[in-house]
Amino acid sequence: MHGPLPLAAATIAPMTHDESPRRSEPTGDDIDQAWADHLSPNRRQVMAAGLAAAAFGGVEGAPSVAPQGPQDPVPPQGQGKSPWGYETYKEPTPAPVSLRPGEQQLPAQPRRYTDIKSYHAHIYFDEDSYAKAALLRKWVADRFHVELGNWNREPRGPHVTPSFYFGFTNDLLPVIVPWLQLNSLGLTILLHPNTEDPRADHLHYALWVNRAQPVNAYGMKKPGPGEPAVEQICPNTKPSVPLET
Question: Is residue 57 a contact partner of residue 64, using CB atoms and an 8 Å limit?
């Protein structure tokens, strides 16, 4: 709300032959401009004084504050303590151990392809695509002699989204791979071999149909003593539909 308008803002309208002098009503723009003209000089003086005081060491009588260097963090009062302590910012940045096969030392010769004993196909889905997954699962069971696993409605093992899997023997590879490429229904599919190194199987030897997605296989270990060197495939389906050719 503006106060009384300074006199300089009022204007006198010109007279005609039958009129006496009359004052015109100021507009909103006139009022805003009048207040700006009235106050700006004072405001400029105050700002200039403040800048000068800052440049020459502050206002007289005000306490001076010495510049301080970086301070060690202290636990906030009344807010608990960090379980990591208060020295983590001093830790060096270590390089993680390389887990990619064949990179610690270059191999002298290629591996035998017969090291692959079987394959897994993992089909991923979500609440919007489960109907496609159900149809693809039925097509597989009706046409191929494979080991069909359960529905995984939640993340399981290294797989971070709902999925199902089927395992198959090497002789089916040249048929199942192109069949899945043409019948994926747009779903993401991970195809990986089964060797003695399940981590490398999932992360470094894998093939993808459509897009790839994260696989949490970093912590997977090689089989221990007394365990099979390679996961076994035991087909459990009873195909009844001839494969389209």
Answer: yes
